Fold these 2 entries.
Entry 1:
Amino acid sequence: MKKGIYLLVFCCIWACSKPKNSNQAIANPKVDSIQALIKIAKKAQELSDEDRNGYLRDAKTIASTIENDTTRLEQFSEISLAYYKLKDSSNFRESNKQIIKSAKESNIPKISGYAYWDLANFLQSYGVIDSAYFNFQKALSHFEQMPADSTSSSLRARMYYSMGRVQDSYQDYLGAEINVTTAIKIFDDLDDNLRLHNSYNLMGVLAKGLGNSQKSLEAYQIAQEYLNKFEAKNKSKLVWQNRNNIASVYFNEENYSQAKILFKEIVNNKDSSNKSTYEKALGSLAYSILKLDNNIDEAEALLSEAYSVNQERGNSQDLARIHQFYAEVLAAKGDTAQAIEVAKESKAIAMETFNNERTLETLKLLTNLDTAHAAAYANEYYELDKLISEEERTKRDKFARIRLETDQVIEANQVLTEEKEVWASAVSGLIIFGLTLTVIVALYINNNRLRSRQQQQAANQEIYNLFLSQQGKFEEGRQLEQKRISEELHDGVLGEMLGIRLILGGLNGRIDEASINQRAELIEKLRVVEEEIRTISHELNNSSYEKFHNFIVSLEDLIDDIEQSSGISCSFSYDKKVPWDNLEGEIKINAYRVIQEALKNCVKHAQSEHVSITFLGMGNDLKLTITDDGVGFDVNRGRKGIGLRNIISRTKKLKGKLDIDSVKGSGTSISILIPAQFVKPNISEPQEPINA
């Protein structure tokens, strides 16, 4: 009864509010009924969740009776979006999945694009960022199938912008810059000033993340210019946000005089509807005054007001920043003990809110304030910074894989579509041909069927026997080739690729758009190739570790080869009590490489006449010593060669201790103490599943 009253009242209001000559109402009254039900479900405050779902179910029932595919799916899309806005995740996911399936079957890319867009927003709201990025890209691919007009162009640009925002949250700044630049080009052609403002604002954030303050400032200033070209309800809020962004650039550059002017303007013209910007401006102004004027009292008063605003907002994310600034105020007052306690509170809040950037800042502050525990804070800073860098690299790699896999899927779908058309034509022709031919050759086919089968079986048996005979040779050659490719990739190609990438990194000083796009594309491609080569090398080397037999013989062969090719006299002695061939493969291959690298250095740089290599067992350790009578070098020099760095790296892999003793003119001695580990029983372990 209650439901019927709501529907009757709303329909009356709906009918009275529409124009009398509404062709749409006459042409499709079902759409009007669906829209009325959706609005009741969304806006009627007195309804329970069960009643809202009831109205949306009624809307779905009516929508299912619409014969036109496009109109029906548009209404289902509106119902699905209503579930999303009502935070009914179960019904949203179910309806969204059905819309995507039906839109693909009906070949309506606009509807499927909107469905993927809704799903991306849904996943982003729940923090599933990588899946959100994937679905934004899927939406883009469907919008690209629409006819080229202003609507499809705007939709594509909005997807590029959305992908850029996702990448910014994962600090994939280069990838985000490429996508946002593409969006800007399209929005510029459409004269969409609001979205141009948003895009340049995001470009400012990305430039800041890349450490280019000048470019960040230019982007925010361009965003301000577009802000003046349109009118919107929230324009005042956008204006002060833009001012705050510009002031923050000066603040981060420690240009506190310019930052103070802008932050004071924001504080004096505070907008009550934008308390977040006002709170940040208060904190930044307090810090600028502290650093610029050393006015402790004024800075403390501003921070106190910022704290009050924060408590009113209930935003713990920004609370760590206020505590950090207040700790510096206390330190300036000379109250170091209290400053340390407040800084610790800032660190605790930052960690609770997963604010890694603020955690690093407070650790840096504590290192300066709490000298008694400075080493511990510095070590914690280093470990967190390293962890953040590794996570960011992993996330960037994930985005690269998503882009690659999506492109491969699109290409594969195109190929399948073309093959489907070819096969359809071929099958039609074959059916006609087969019906005609069947009458003529039926008897001939029956007589020869058995003979054909016998010949096929004989051919299959011959192929199988040939395969078996070649398999053994192939396996032997494959193992040898794996080892050779591994060495070539790791010692040759990978080093060159790294050098090329570092050279390209030197182009960062150029800020023109063409250089940005070219640099980002090249660096990204080289990084992906480098990672793939590293992975291949690692996998191939694992194989070579397992097959590294006759260890001492291999070392003797290596030393003999160097001796014969270089003319250097080499001596090699080892402890015959040690079961060398039972050593772990990791020890054998790295010890082999260390000796190889040391001998190369003797040939290339040391000008040695004699080299002595000893490999002895010492309790639970192995001691490898390489001594030459060459020209020697200064072990305290700051920059080490690639060969020496490789020896250091391999020693770390073995968890060994390296000692290098060298004096110019008196030769060099390299001594490595390695924890001995021998082969254990070969027990296969279950492999971890690879995350998609």
Entry 2:
Amino acid sequence: MIEPTLEPTWTPERVDQLKGYFAAGLSCRDIAVSIGVSRNAVIGKLSRLNLTRSTPEERRARRKRSTPPAQRPTPKQQLRMLQAVYPQEPEDAPIASVNNCSLFELSEQRCRWPISTPGADDFCFCGNTPLGGMPYCSGHYRLAYQSNSRQRAMRG
């Protein structure tokens, strides 16, 4: 049986090509394609040869002058964005559960808010159309996810 011979990845010719392409300013990807090795192999070999495109001082200066990351919206701005996407009904609007359903009829297309007490004869679920991606209709969503609940408790 003939055993395959493995050639080293970095032959002296490839190292010379790498140095020439690097000096010419080619990207690591372009060098890898030209030589016939992976991009990571090029990056590793450049590192082992201590070949860099900038000095440590230039890298430090680049880090210092980098722009700060984009500011995240404040909670008030986030609330305004959510209110624009999901318009709210008045807080004291009555919730009409006109499509009541049993546990067996419950699905993702029906509000899952329980009506009455589990085990009672009149126990059911709201059954109205829920908000997109949420388990509850708009009225029960208001009850389940109350904003400023501390302020409401202080008022009432």
